[in-house]
Amino acid sequence: MNSRPAYYLESVGRAIQLLDCFTRDTPELRLTDLSNALEMSKAQVLRIASTLEMSGYLLRDPQTKRYRLGIRLFQLGMLVQQQIDLRRIVHPYLEDLVARADESARLIVPYDDGPICLDLVESRQGTRVFAQLGQRMPWNAGTSPKLILAFMPDAERERILCHDHFQRYTENTITDPDALRQELAEIRQRGYHIGRRDLDKDATGISAPLFDHNGAIAGTVNFSVPVSRVSEPRIEELLQWVIEAAHEISLQLGYQPAQRTHFPPAASE
């Protein structure tokens, strides 16, 4: 009986099996070794290995003809490690924000095809904004996605603005790239973003950016609040709390005080 999922790709599965052949005890393998381990012909293994080599997932020593894992896997591993560390650092701050405000708080991080919710702590209130761990978000709607997009390097931001087809979610969603560019410039100037009803017609988002040791955007911390429960004084209070938390987290990520221009003044200053 075949227990594989309906959308299983045999070629991708074989590539993963090939990568799994490399271990601490066998960091380098010959084509013959891989062929024997996978019970596949050398011609099949060569095609898979060559494809992985072209993409940086394998390296082949020109002298010994042995394969070893490539730098691309190291880069992906570092990315996973950074996200694990980021979540570990941020989670206590999310818990504190929710304890103070009794509103849901989230950690949103950038990905190539749209930011995702890496961590969240839910409000205890019966009426709250729905959030899902691992949820992928669009670039043009939602408070955190636009804040991340605003602080991306110019080339990355333009790649997204030029090539993404932006969907409309509510009557407040911006789909025109030029209008979005203008709003992103205003967000960069402010250093935070308050979004109202552009992704969820019943939600207000309040987000502050997280910066790493290079001053690059690492993500955001965010309050998501039902519009029925916010007033301007309440928004200002929530904003100051999220800005303070974002600044403290950024310092833990190695962000230098001299780079503080990204942040608006905290309430205590």
Q: End-to-end span in angstroms?
A: 67 Å
Give the ordered list of helices and strands.
Answer: HHHEEHEEHHHEEEH
**Class derived from helix and strand content:** alpha+beta
CATH T-level fold name of the largest domain: Beta-Lactamase
Give the spatial strand order of the biggest sheet: 4-3-7-6-5
Name the CATH class of the largest domain: Alpha Beta
Q: Supply the CATH architecture of the largest domain.
A: 2-Layer Sandwich
Total number of beta strands: 7
Number of DSSP helical runs = 8
Descriptive account of the structure:
With 269 residues, the chain is α+β, with helices and mostly antiparallel strands. It has two domains: 10-69, Winged helix-like DNA-binding domain superfamily/Winged helix DNA-binding domain (Arc Repressor Mutant, subunit A), CATH 1.10.10; 76-262, Beta-Lactamase (2-Layer Sandwich). Helices cover 43% and strands 15% of the residues. It has helices at residues 10-20, 31-38, 42-54, 71-101, 143-151, 154-163, 177-190, 232-252, and strands at residues 58-60, 67-69, 104-109, 116-121, 193-196, 203-211, 217-226. The strands form two sheets. The chain has a five-stranded antiparallel β-sheet, with helices on both faces. Strands 1-2 form a two-stranded antiparallel ribbon. Strand 6 (203-211) and strand 7 form a beta hairpin. Helix 1 (10-20) packs across helix 3, helix 4 (71-101) packs antiparallel against helix 8 (232-252) and helix 5 (143-151) crosses helix 7 (177-190). The model has no long low-confidence stretch (mean pLDDT 88).
